[in-house]
Amino acid sequence: MSEPSLSSSSGDSKRSSISSDLPEFQRIKLKHVPKVKRRAPQPPPQTLPLRKTSSTTKTSSLTAPAKLYGKDLSEYDDVDVETLLAQLSPEEINILAKEVDPDDNFLPPDQRCSYECTKDPTGPLNRKKLIEHINKQAIETPDQPEFEPYVKGTVRGKKWVPPPRDQRDVEAEEKIAIDLGDEYESALKDATQEEIIDLAAILGFHSMMNQDQYHASLLNKGQPVGMGWDGITKSTQQKVYPMDPPNDTDVEESIRRVKDDDEKLIDLNLNNIKNISEEKLEQLINALPGNEHLEVLSLTNVGLTDKLALLLAEAIEKSKTLRVLNVETNFISPPVIVKLVQALLKCRTIEEFRASNQRSQVLGNKIEMEITDLVEKNTSLLRLGLHLEFNDARHRVAAHLQRNIDRTGRQRRMGHFGRNYTIGFYQ
């Protein structure tokens, strides 16, 4: 019973001595691998002849199975890869990872690359010195010698010669001719260059002229003098428009007039006033439900947040006279925009609502579908200022707003006819 143990220990000592002599990347193969049942060797594939005909002979052959290290790939199906990897040390796993490039697009390139720099950093990155070093190294590196020296006028290597064209295609191109008639041919023959350019612009031949010639032809201004077919477009003087004056609306006075329900305050424009505090905006929003004369409220680029927008949604539901609401270019999130559109269902007086150019440029499919469903339930909204990305939402909203406009127009016409009839009856 002692002899087998001695032989096994001697075998282990030999195996350890052999493994110590091998390099580190080859020691992985010395790990114990569980035995796999071998299949009986199969005969080589034979070629099976098929039916022969008088014209051709067809044969088919069975392809040999793929092999790895002299074994069929099917023999490795029963090998547990997790067990093999669990037996490896961290150093061996690093060596194995250097030889494998994971096909994973989510990994950054620095983790997929097998190159690893083990040098210590010499300091922070200096881009200017790095470029100078690369340029210097490129200049100092000698060029590779050419196998054949360059001689002017001689062709090195094989010269490409285009294949000859089919004679039938050449004859077909020669036969193509357009018969315009004597009247058109004489008109084109006697036409000036400016008239030909006008004709090309009318026919849509944009590549035959520059931009100035094209626009001059469309506007019937006459062609610029001295241009012709090879004319170069010169830069035109840029039109300078004066800057819009700053909004000098008194915020505190406007809030006071809204609270007092001033009958003269119908349109309140606070656009582009960036120094309005959150407390003042909150006072203005809280005063809206009690006002019965304000019809247009513009709060573009005033720094509205979700908190203030939610208060505005509650105030809209209680408003009785507001017709136009503009809250573009603010910091309102898409879910809060849905709350504002939902509040329009309870306020039947608002005809125009604008809320584009917010913090999130893209609303998303879910938000757009919610807005579309809410708009389709609204019978008083006539204009909506929102950027909808999906075609389904845009078409549905546009069709419903058009129906609202048509319905409102019919109601106004009917009311107008009714008033005329009543007035005529009393007269």
UniProtKB/TrEMBL annotation:
Residue stretches of biased makeup (Basic residues): 28-40
InterPro entries: LRR_dom_sf (IPR032675), TMOD (IPR004934)
Organism of derivation: Musca domestica
Region spans: Disordered: 1-65
Keywords annotated in UniProt: Cytoplasm, Cytoskeleton
Annotated compartments: Cytoplasm, Cytoskeleton
Signal peptide: none
Gene3D superfamilies: Ribonuclease Inhibitor
Biased composition (Low complexity): 1-20, 48-65
Protein origin, superkingdom: Eukaryota
Name listed for the protein in its UniProt record: Tropomodulin-like isoform X4
Pfam families (UniProt xref): Tropomodulin (PF03250)
PANTHER family: TROPOMODULIN (PTHR10901), TROPOMODULIN, ISOFORM N (PTHR10901:SF6)
